[in-house]
C-alpha cells in the first residue's frame, strides 16, 4: 500500500463559551487537518492544533512543516511503518504539532489496513474513558456557575484554570469548592502563570483552607526547571509538569531531577503517538503518574489520544475535554461523549467516517 496523496485543510469549530487560560483566550478550535491517501483508496486522518503560545506552532508554520514532511512520504510503502514514523520525526526539528498530525494519520491508516480499531492496534483495553472537564478563568461567579453546570452533567473531576492573579486564584478555588462540595476531585492549572514564591503561598493557602486540591499543574514558566523543582520540593500538593515536558529528553530531565510528581503527556507536544509512548514508559518505570492531556483541538486528535490512553493503568487523569466545549461536531465517527464518559469507536483506525466543513489548503502528490 503506497502513499499517493496528502491533503491539508483547515477546520474551525466554534466553542460554546470562550476558553480562557493564563496564556490565551479563544472562541474557536483551530485545527489543521491532514488526510493521507493510498493507491488502494484507504484514507488516514490526522490533525494539528495551532497553539503558538505553548508549542510555538501557528497554522501557517504547521502547514509549511507538513508540506516539507509530506514530500518525503509520497510514494512510500506503509508496510515500512516505523521507517515512516522516523521520517516524520527526523525531517525537521521542533514543529511537534505538524509531526503529530502526520503521525496520527499514519497510525489511523495502518490500523485500518489491519482491520483493527486504533486502540486495539496500540494494545487494547476497554474502549471508554472517564474524562475531566475544565473551568476557564473568568470572574468568580461565572466560574462557579460553570463548575456547577459541569457537575450536573456528570463530571467527577474538574480542572480549574488559574494563574492570572494569585489572590483571586485562591478566591476562585475556594468559591468553587464551596459550591460543588467535597466529593469531587479538583485540580488546578496555572499554565506557567505564577512565580515560585507565589505558587508556594497559594499552595499553603489552599491547604490552610482545606480545599482538597488534588494536584497543581505547571505553576512556573516552562523553562524554569530550577523553580519547578523548588516548588515541588516544598509543596504538600502534588505538582505536575505540562509545558516543561515536550520530549523524552525533557521527561528524563524532569524525572531524574525529581522536579515533578507527575507528567502531562500531549500528542501536540510529543510529536505524535510514536513519541508519546516512550515518555509514558519512562514515567511508568519510575513510578511517576501521568495525565493524558490535549490542546484545544478537534475530536480527531482526541480520538488518537483516547486510543493511546485505553488500557494504560498509569494514566491518573484523562483531560480530553474539548469535545465538551464545541457547539457542534463536524467529525463523523471517532469518539463520542455520554455524560463524562468518552466512548471510542470499534471501527478500524480512529473510526472516523468523514469530516465536514473542511477548507482545502493544498494537496501534495498526484
Name the helicity range. 25-40%
Quaternary organisation of the protein chains: single chain
Major beta sheet, specifics? Answer: 8 strands, parallel
Coarse structural class: alpha/beta
| Element-level helix/strand string | EEEHHHHEEHEHEHEHEHEHHEHEHEEEEE
Spans of at least 5 consecutive residues whose pLDDT stays below 50 are none
How many distinct helices?
13
The count of β-strands is 17
- Terminal residue distance: 15 Å
- What coarse outline follows from CA principal-axis ratios? globular
Query: How are strands sequenced across the largest beta sheet?
Result: 5-6-7-8-9-10-11-12
Percent of residues in beta strands? 25-35%
Rg (CA only): 20 Å
Mean pLDDT across the residues is 96
Labels describing this entry:
single chain, 366 residues, alpha/beta, 8-stranded parallel β-sheet, 4-stranded antiparallel β-sheet, 13 helices, 38% helix, globular
Outline the structure in words.
With 366 residues, the protein is of the alpha/beta class. Helix content is 38%, strand content 26%. The chain is built from 13 helices and 17 strands. The strands form four sheets. The protein has an eight-stranded parallel sheet. It has a four-stranded antiparallel sheet with strand order 3-2-1-17, sandwiched between helices. Helix 6 links the parallel strand 6 (157-161) and strand 7 (185-189). The model has no long low-confidence stretch (mean pLDDT 96).
In short:
The protein has helices at residues 59-73, 81-90, 96-113, 118-121, 140-152, 166-180, 196-208, 225-234, 248-256, 267-270, 273-285, 299-309, 322-325; strands at 3-20, 25-38, 43-49, 128-130, 133-135, 157-161, 185-189, 213-217, 239-241, 262-265, 290-292, 315-318, 331-333, 336-338, 341-343, 352-355, 359-365. The chain is an alpha/beta fold and 366 residues long.
